[in-house]
Automatic annotation (TrEMBL):
Pfam families cross-referenced by the UniProt entry: Bac_globin
PROSITE patterns reported for this sequence: PROKAR_LIPOPROTEIN
Keyword Signal: yes
InterPro entries in the cross-refs: Globin-like_sf, Globin/Proto, Hemoglobin_trunc
Keyword Heme: yes
Highest taxon listed in the record's lineage: Bacteria
UniProt keywords, alphabetically: Heme, Iron, Metal-binding, Signal, Transport
Protein name listed in UniProt: Group 1 truncated hemoglobin
Source organism of the structure: Marinobacter qingdaonensis
């Protein structure tokens, strides 16, 4: 579960709030999915994926990374992306789409950047470096 309740304010908690809590993050991930499907730089990679599972797991991951009360229960990042041969261009394309999705959901630029900063450590795993 991912409940929101009376919890002391911490910097990480604050990012979760700025993203609109789990429901706000779920809306961002939904918009991200539409952008991915429209983006010829990356959409072929996502052909045949389980959309509902992707939505749930990425939402939980971003919720947890932003300091929210969620636990990511999807597959391990390196293992999951290992056979995809993801290029820098494709990684950047996904990041660009995430930024666009956050823009569409009126997320403040500072909050956008703070989330991106927390995703950067996953770069070597996603690119299998
Ligand atoms: C920081 C960057 C990234 C993060 C945090 C991330 C995270 C995730 C997460 C949480 C899932 C769902 C895991 C699950 O269902 O068990 C996923 C699935 C997937 N990711 Fe990534 N990802 C990133 C970058 C990329 C890039 C750049 C690509 C390709 C362009 C990509 C391609 C995929 C595909 C195709 C799936 C679906 C696999 C399937 O369900 O068959 N990811 N990713």
């Amino acid at each position: 579960g991912c409940q929101t309740g009376a919890t002391p304010e911490t910097p990480s908690r604050d990012l979760f709030q700025q993203l609109g809590e789990r429901s706000g993050i779920a809306a961002i991930v939904e918009d991200l999915l539409f952008l991915i499907v429209d983006d010829d730089r990356i959409n072929q990679q996502f052909k045949g994926m389980d959309v509902a599972r992707f939505h749930r797991n990425l939402t939980d991951q971003l919720c947890q990374l932003s300091g929210g009360p969620c636990t990511y229960s999807g597959r391990e990042m390196r293992e999951l992306h290992a056979d995809m041969a993801i290029t820098d261009t494709q990684f950047n394309a996904l990041a660009e789409n995430l930024i666009l999705a956050m823009e569409q959901n009126d997320i403040a630029t500072g909050a956008q950047n703070r989330l991106l900063k927390r995703l950067i450590p996953l770069y070597p795993d996603v690119r299998n470096l």
